Amino acid sequence: MLVIEDETNLADAIVRGLRRQGMAVDVAYDGTSGHEMVMITRYDVVVLDRDLPGIHGDDICADLVASGALTRVLMLTASGSVADRVEGLQIGADDYLPKPFAFDELVARVQALGRRATPAAPPVLTIGDLVLDQAKRVATRAGQPLDLTRKEFGLLEELLKARGAVVSSEELLERVWDANADPFTTTVRVTMMTLRKKLGEPALIETVVGAGYRTRLPQ
């Protein structure tokens, strides 16, 4: 997801908090750079401050809607009047949150929007004896809890949501990490290796040479 907020301290606090929830988050501190980022990358959710320097948040939202992207917009503003909320929603925002706000509420709204931005997936994902609860952020195999890092959990979650389709390393890097990740790094391969060790046998993830990874039931 992307946070576009010109109050640097607030933006950084939001980003840190969302990353602690296991989300891959990019950040822009002005409307111009934020507009460029949303036009290039397909984000699930954009947390968008309305009053931005450069390109106004309203214009970013309108251009995003016009592009036909599935990206959902949570608009932030210092004004909490009914008129402002109505205007923001009419522009095309999916949700509206006045400042100051409770961080738990922000997380809940972002998660709800994220579920609407991608093809519907059940809150609990399973394959064989593996169970992953997206809401509780826990995974078990054969009833035993798995001690996964946030990135390992994220990789597993993306593969399970793909329902057996191949997911490339590039897609995993984009969806589980953030814009600061080196596209030439081996971090996906290394994290996948540790994830497989923790999942144990029989293997549930297979490598499709030259394409990526997918889940499969053991033979």
Largest sheet: 5 strands, parallel
Name the shape in a single word: elongated
Give the mean pLDDT. 87
Helix content: 40-55%
Number of strands: 11
**Whole-angstrom Rg:** 19 Å
**Proportion of β residues?**
15-25%
**End-to-end CA span:** 37 Å
Provide the spatial order of strands within the biggest beta sheet: 2-1-3-4-5
Instruction: Assign the structural class, choosing from mainly alpha, mainly beta, alpha/beta, alpha+beta, or little secondary structure.
Output: alpha/beta
Summary of the model, kept short:
Keywords: DNA-binding, Phosphoprotein. The protein is an alpha/beta fold.
Written description of the protein model:
The protein has 219 residues and is α/β, with parallel strands linked by helices. The protein has helices spanning 8-20, 31-40, 57-66, 82-91, 103-117, 150-161, 169-176, 187-199; strands spanning 2-4, 26-28, 45-49, 72-77, 95-98, 124-127, 130-133, 138-141, 144-145, 205-208, 212-215. It has a 5-stranded parallel sheet with strand order 2-1-3-4-5, sandwiched between helices. A 4-stranded antiparallel sheet has the order 6-7-8-9, covered by helices on one side. A two-stranded antiparallel sheet has the order 10-11. The protein is elongated, with a radius of gyration of 19 Å. The model has no long low-confidence stretch (mean pLDDT 87).
